[in-house]
Amino acid sequence: MTALKGKVAIVTGASKGLGQAIARRLAKGGANVVASARSTDKLEALAQEAPDRILAFPCDVTKSTQVQALIQFALQRFGRIDILVNNAGLGHFAPIDELSEEQWDEMMNVNLKGAFLACKYAIPHLKATEGHIVNISSVAGTEAFPNGGGYCASKFGLMALSDTLTLELKPYHVKVSTLCPGSIKTEFHHPKAYAMEAEQVAETVWTMVSAPKGVIYNQVIMRPLVPKNLLKKS
Ligand SMILES: NC(=O)c1ccc[n+]([C@@H]2O[C@H](COP(=O)([O-])OP(=O)(O)OC[C@H]3O[C@@H](n4cnc5c(N)ncnc54)[C@H](OP(=O)(O)O)[C@@H]3O)[C@@H](O)[C@H]2O)c1
């Protein structure tokens, strides 16, 4: 299927896990993909899988100058930006009084500021193409849990950013979608035994960005089904 033929997508956090699966899925769907993260070697290996479709560009999303360079790279190589997937993220899990200030700052900087920076510098170009922003939040962006204070705060913040962007960009026909997955089998943080495959979650991103022209998937929450033998009896 080549619904995204001629479209240009930037995917952050594409060196592994969900971001890598999203980059692969969008490339399979016909898009030219700029795959970005800090691990250059892993990005280069991904680009080798589809050299005509995936280009690697190293970028730390917490650094404004690097994010601006990423946007410029996509424009120079492809002349346009249609899709921005803000996927880069990480989590530290501990009670608030045990969470270090560095861990708090890192989550806010990557999960929230990184998305802000990428949006800030991509939006003028997304307006030009009537493009699409997909923010990868989490079930943790919809409900809090013990030990998740910093991570949940960063993802709740991302939900607020997404809602604001939805309203600000509506007049320009730039779509904004937020995906809130539950546990995924990646290196992120002890996935549940029955966690979703990254490819299953990437398929939802594909559904969002290939929606009909007049349709927006604003927000999707997706979780793995808990096996019956593990369901708590109430
Ligand atoms: N796994 C889950 O259960 C789960 C559930 C819900 C939501 N999520 C969300 O899904 C997204 C992807 O997570 P994942 O499970 O795929 O985790 P992962 O396997 O640990 O991958 C995280 C990605 O983020 C990148 N990254 C981290 N810091 C970065 C920075 N400063 N600048 C640029 N890239 C950075 C990493 O690349 P480098 O280290 O190479 O920079 C890597 O590509 C995250 O936003 C996460 O919060 C995950």
UniProtKB/TrEMBL annotation:
Presence of keyword Disulfide bond: no
GO biological process assignments: bile acid metabolic process
Molecular-function GO terms, alphabetical: oxidoreductase activity
Pfam families: adh_short
Keyword terms, alphabetized: Oxidoreductase
Recorded GO CC terms: cytosol
InterPro entries attached to this UniProt entry: KR_dom, NAD(P)-bd_dom_sf, SDR_fam
SUPFAM superfamilies registered for this protein in UniProt: NAD(P)-binding Rossmann-fold domains
The Ketoreductase domain, residue ranges: 7-187
Family: Belongs to the short-chain dehydrogenases/reductases (SDR) family.
Listed name of the protein: NADP-dependent 3-hydroxy acid dehydrogenase YdfG
Record organism: Lihuaxuella thermophila
